[in-house]
TrEMBL record:
Residue ranges crossing the lipid bilayer per the database entry: 12-32, 44-61, 81-99, 153-170, 182-207, 227-252, 264-285, 297-316, 323-343, 349-371, 392-411, 431-456, 468-490
GO BP term, pick one: ATP synthesis coupled electron transport
PANTHER family: NADH DEHYDROGENASE
Keywords tagged on the record: Membrane, Transmembrane, Transmembrane helix
Main localisation: membrane
Membrane topology per record: Multi-pass membrane protein
Location of the NADH:quinone oxidoreductase/Mrp antiporter transmembrane domain: 147-442
Compartment list: Membrane
Organism: freshwater metagenome
Source species taxonomy: unclassified sequences, metagenomes, ecological metagenomes
GO CC field: membrane
Name of the protein in question: Unannotated protein
Amino acid sequence: MITFVSPTLDYALLAPILIVLGGALIGVLIEAFAPRSARASSQLFITLATLALSLASLVRVRSGASTTAAMESVTFDGAGVLLQGSILLIAIISVFLLADLDNFTALAAALPGSDEERTSLQQDLKVTEVYPLTLFAVAGMLLFPVATDLVTLFVALEMLSLPLYLLAGLSRRRRLMSQESALKYFLLGAFSSAFFLMGIAYLYGYSAAVSFSGIHAAVIGGTGNDIYLLLGIAFLSVGLLFKVGAVPFHAWSPDVYQGAPTAVTAFMAAATKVAAFGAMLRIFYLSFAEAYWQWRPALIVIALITMVFGSLVAIAQRDVKRMLAYSSIAHAGFLLSGVIALNKSGLDASIFYLFAYGVATVGAFAIVTLVRDSAGEVTDLNRWSGLGKRSPWVATAFAGFLLAFAGIPLTSGFIGKFSIFSAAYESGSTAILITGVLSSAIAAFFYIRVIVLMFFKDPVEDGTSVVIPSVYTQITIAISAVVTFALGIYPTPLINFIQSTAQFLR
């Protein structure tokens, strides 16, 4: 006889996720029933209010004593709350950039170049569905780093991925490239999800459990078949490494970054990395820590190749969005150092790095939306020549974000890289340390090359100009720049807060 056990849910702890899902559903209702003229302002207000309310409820969760929110499926601890807070803050900054709806197609269902598309453009229609789609993706991202069983982890993975597949295809200009990028992202994402599911099956076969604690107990007990464990870790890692864009699962990144609307690229590049690395840190620190001799050598090799490959290939890029894509691949290699370190310093450094890198990434892509000609955004680096003479403030802000990516002192990137390489050194990963420093030096070359191009070359009169940013884009750039330099000049409060808060509870 089958006995059904009623699930025990702590709705107060789940409130940050439930609030975001509720806001997304309200957004769907607005799309269905509100007049078209009122949708953009209503959706923006609902989205920002939802994210702010979710962040406020997360502060309340932080002060609570309970940790298990949904039996063994969702666990709130210090590290999970910090990662969720980072996702919400990055999402709020990104929403201001998304609010400039002129970057999105007027009618998503219209074929590129069709009469229907031309008519919708003439009517100046706005695709306001981006707001509920963004909230659904944020809900998945919030669940991803606090999930403590493999089934919930997979549900969260799909919840964050499916809206991003749609958002990637909504660019207003270069519609065919945008749709191609969305299709590539979807197909490769489906393959990675299949690998992820296969990993879940092998780990269940190894431990007869899907919870992280059950897998950990099986690893300690050593009663299972180690072949299943190795295959499970390998297949599960494919799904996670795809999301963070690590080599050799990086092929989608440049094409999707280039083809997707730049505002979506900014959100995807920043928030997805926080969620994916959060989940990776939790599962490797909690479930696979005692089996590190099996997986650590392979992950070290992947980290080394990712750092070097991303830095070297970025040098050859002539498109600013592709350059930033390969830069993000290199940063994924740096962040893998925190997973490999497998110590408290690695956890603290990873959380700081993820937040600092995410904020700078949103700011950098916000700058990209401002450099345009009559056909839309100009991403050819040659046409950015002399940008500092055309618009000193825009060029200065972009240079600041590039210096943060390069890890130059007085920026958040320097503190992040110093922390994460220190953690790698503490764990004995000398190869990671040496390769990371050399890769950072290589990366600094192409970042500084762009700065030289902007400030020390004469502008070419080819129709390229810098548009006056909307108030929403100004907010995104201003917040990103302030946070980037504040964390570089005075990072102590945040570092101390992370050190006192970040921990994983089994």
